[in-house]
Amino acid sequence: MQRAKCKVTFLPHNREIEVNAGESLIRAAMEAGVHINASCGGEGVCGKCRVMLESGTVDGGISERLKREDIDKGYRLACRSQISGDVVIRIPVESGIDASVLNKKYIPRSTAHIWQMNFDELKEQGLFISPVEKKYMELPEPTQHDNVPDVMRMINFLKINHDEHRLVAELPVIRKISDVLRQNNFKVTATLARPVQPGRKTHIINVQPGDTTDRNYAIAADIGTTTVYGQLIDLNSGKGLAEQGEFNGQISYGEDVISRIMYAEKPGGLDKIQEVVVKTINDIIRKIIRRAGVDKEEISTITLAGNTTMTQLLLKINPRYIRRAPYVPTSTIYPPLRAVELGIDLGQHAKALIYPIVSSYVGGDIVAGVMGSGMYRTDELTLFLDIGTNAEIVIGNKDWLACAACSAGPAFEGGGIEFGMRASEGAIEDFSIDPFTYEPMNLTIGNVRPKGICGSGLIIMVATLFEMGVIDNLGKFNRNLNTTRIRERDGIWEYVLAYAPETQIDRDIVLTEPDIDNLIRAKGAIYSGCMTLIEEVGLDVSSLQRIILAGGFGSYVDLEKAMTIGLLPEIDPAKVTYVGNGSLMGARMSTLTNRIRKDVVEVTRKMTNFELSETPSYMDHYVASLFLPHTDMNHFPKVKARLDARRNGDINPQV
Amino acid sequence: MQRAKCKVTFLPHNREIEVNAGESLIRAAMEAGVHINASCGGEGVCGKCRVMLESGTVDGGISERLKREDIDKGYRLACRSQISGDVVIRIPVESGIDASVLNKKYIPRSTAHIWQMNFDELKEQGLFISPVEKKYMELPEPTQHDNVPDVMRMINFLKINHDEHRLVAELPVIRKISDVLRQNNFKVTATLARPVQPGRKTHIINVQPGDTTDRNYAIAADIGTTTVYGQLIDLNSGKGLAEQGEFNGQISYGEDVISRIMYAEKPGGLDKIQEVVVKTINDIIRKIIRRAGVDKEEISTITLAGNTTMTQLLLKINPRYIRRAPYVPTSTIYPPLRAVELGIDLGQHAKALIYPIVSSYVGGDIVAGVMGSGMYRTDELTLFLDIGTNAEIVIGNKDWLACAACSAGPAFEGGGIEFGMRASEGAIEDFSIDPFTYEPMNLTIGNVRPKGICGSGLIIMVATLFEMGVIDNLGKFNRNLNTTRIRERDGIWEYVLAYAPETQIDRDIVLTEPDIDNLIRAKGAIYSGCMTLIEEVGLDVSSLQRIILAGGFGSYVDLEKAMTIGLLPEIDPAKVTYVGNGSLMGARMSTLTNRIRKDVVEVTRKMTNFELSETPSYMDHYVASLFLPHTDMNHFPKVKARLDARRNGDINPQV
């Protein structure tokens, strides 16, 4: 159901924004760039976000925090008000608005636009070469004068009537064909698996009773260290029919790849840990095929992408040397397999395709992202970035590709941050600050009282504090501001985001200088990785034409803020694309078309891997990146312009 | 140890023959074409084979059947005498020699010469393209500046140092390579499996510690209905290292293919019967590798050939339709497999190659025979004949091949013959008759008292009786001969080969008219099969240039006698080759060279199968073949000439 659009006008800013009915008023304000003091994340506890209805009505917004007469006058709590129609809202002076900010231009939230695979586009571009096709046949029945073997009867028929050549029947087909033919009056459907390399053989991998041409399915899977995703795909339409994510069962044997490798090195560990991830995959398969009403036997192929460790564990390849210098993985390319060889619960005929990897720390998930995003087909110099605890960086275009991995540390997932947390209910995910009173506007996931700060919230916070002059380019608080929110505690300076009674945790939630320092190190690692790679190939960061973000983190990042802190190179936000789970997307692409399956081998070969620890300039770049946004402000001309304008007294620079 | 050659001169024939020391005197006589009455097969029981030493000595030959004074005179029993030096022997008149036979020209035993595969010849002919090669490598160890994945390190090395291209590593190799490399200082041996089709990929199927290039082995196996043979082959030298035959364990589930199929149709039967033959194969493998001191892991490939039923059972393909009109087998060609997929106890990397079949009754054993014998490469019009209960016939040359199968019945294996038996100890295997007294000369396998008659003996017997005029061209005894050996018993005419006291079975061993009739039907089926095939391709039986015999039966057949009864087309015996176990030979050839593996697909496609039961002329040919040798004597000009000469009073025609 499409939600109605409502127009919200904020006074005295006189700023209009269109939002979906049901949106909370305080989120609409944040989106419009209108600051409203709000500490409690939107649960109506702090009572600071009083606004006044000038015309129209909202649902809710009435609270014991408001006096009866104020309610009658039209006051509401912004965080408790849901928009249900066009409305005009006035931000009262006591909610902390200085007239000078009213001229601030409306800048829409600059998250990346989300890339969607388009099956029809694939077809138009000639990229669609289905790896699996089904052919329905009504074969002539054998007679005493025509008793060629069953398999040859089928192959001859396909040759004559379907112009199919170089056919070879696989053993499971040979084993069942005689009965299938005779039990169905020789009316059957053959499943043909096309060769990836033209001129090779087409394999007949299944033969089924009657006409099953409308049932042609595949599975794409992303084997993440934390989460495994599976998607059921209709090969005829290209559509995803069902998707499921489950925690990787290996989590019980260690949270990260290193602890998984250590477990796999124990006697029997590799077998066990392989079994466990296959169980997770099988659970997902069972759920998605049940949900879509698809029979297991109708699935012809599964494509699996994962990082190098996940890939080696899935294939039962000793991962021991991945974590030991000089970090040698076993292979980049894996031969095609039958899914059952890995223990995957599909039919005997189902093929398993494993995404190739590049190095110990640039795995199949990244290759899949490069394939799925189409980065390897573009002329534009593109930066592909998958940010997590480890960040993988790919730079290049259709002519060349360079890649590297770096350890960003867990800051983006809330690790090493005093009140850091994953992006779940109660995490502060958006933030604004009053330029004069330094009062915060906290928005939390779920509009509940805050529990902590998630990664994307942290970036917005640090960027905002930096732009407002609350912290300097080393991430240190300005000790001279007139606010009690900035304070020293046990020798550590911090900013109080919410006081204990406004939180769910009965403790003041603060952002400390060490938190900021951790974020700076994390973003510095990533940015200097990009810089090093670009420099190694003889280019300059300003030559970047496109950024592709992948991974769970990317969808929520405020791009402008990410550039402000120097996490991302400065670029027009419209040139930034978010591809979501790039690994799953690439797996899906390879599942859909042999063109991608063919290209991936060449692309993997083309991806030059740089070991950052072995690249002398990396450390120099890293040190230069441990500033907000960077030592060399020429990399960030817009940020520089804004800071310069502020320094010249412009409280609200329009850059 | 080479045995000494001794010259034996028979008087009054004045015929000389050279034989190995240790040969029995009676066999030397048979070989020289010298008849000596002998009923008891050579055990010295009948005492009829008295001969006299004119000069020289023999070992043994003294018996209580001889009087003291006769021994002193130089009399010996021929059957108990072993030749130990040059000797002159006189056949006494009482041993039944008529002077008129003394002019009979010496005709050597006309068994087929035995074909031996010659590895060097293969190489000279450019036919040797080893399917498996090993390469020893000393790889550079990875460093921080050279940390390409292990598999790529190996592939790159093979590319640069061994000019190897299009390499792909298989999963078992990927799984073990990292450890093998590091446990052996990066000094390892790779096993490369070459593509059968040029331009396809070379698979790296194994990687082993150190230098194992001198250990490169394969197995060839013939899966017979009765017996399974396996041969261990050194791929470097082409030599067979060990061979073993075992009864096919499936015998417990039925003696012939039909009963095996019936068993396989029962619930669980197919699984069971597959398991059983694999157990037989595994037993053989275990024995031959132990005997040769070869490690199981050093075996890279196994080639298996069998008839269509044996092949389908081995591959666990329902054989149900093989025995039901219109006799449709499931497939002619089978994809390459890993041996372990069939349950064969070899390394994970070992490939299994299954010989293709042509039709339900012309199987992989015959295709293997055609490949191994080189029939498909010759210009000469060749007849390939594998005679057993079923006879398979292939006619053709390098340009075309036609094949058929017919049921000969069990006569050649002693079935349906009153005293028929398999070729084992006590079977009469050679026979001669005195042209005047009609007394027999029986030689048995093992020189023991007779138990019965084996197939090759039966052919000699019937041919000899026919040529001597003891039976006519319908196989009926001449009722007017002056001998008590031909008699009527319960309305059936028969010839007494040995009287009860001369036998091991205390019964008269006889050859009956129904026995002869069965033989005539069996040879008629085969000959008319050949005729029909030849006629269907527009040729004439006289155009045959070469005959290749295969199967256990072929080695003992006296070719001249086989032509006399009309089993084989009349041809110069020098043009007849015996290839022994053609199936095993073909399997061995395919194991040794990819050239044969490549050719076999084309050859199988080329082999046009004729269903004799569906060929109208077959019955006419069959009826015409129910004579000795045939209704149309123009097919057998030499037999005709001999018979004509006899009819004109020449007792010993020199044709």
Spell out the blueprint of helices and strands:
The structure is a homodimer of 655-residue chains.
Chain A: E1 5-11, E2 15-20, H1 25-32, E3 50-55, E4 58-60, H2 68-73, E5 75-77, E6 81-83, E7 87-90, E8 113-114, H3 119-124, E9 132-138, H4 150-162, E10 167-169, H5 171-183, E11 187-193, E12 202-209, E13 217-223, E14 227-234, E15 240-247, H6 257-264, H7 269-292, E16 299-306, H8 308-314, E17 337-338, E18 351-354, H9 364-373, E19 382-387, E20 390-396, E21 401-407, E22 427-433, E23 440-444, E24 452-453, H10 455-467, E25 486-489, E26 492-498, E27 509-512, H11 513-536, E28 546-550, H12 559-564, E29 576-578, H13 582-592, H14 594-606, E30 607-610, H15 617-624, H16 637-647
Parallel strand pairs in A: 1-7, 8-29, 10-12, 13-16, 16-18, 19-28, 21-30, 22-24, 28-29
Antiparallel strand pairs in A: 1-2, 3-5, 3-7, 4-6, 9-11, 11-12, 13-14, 14-15, 17-18, 19-20, 20-21, 22-23, 25-26, 26-27
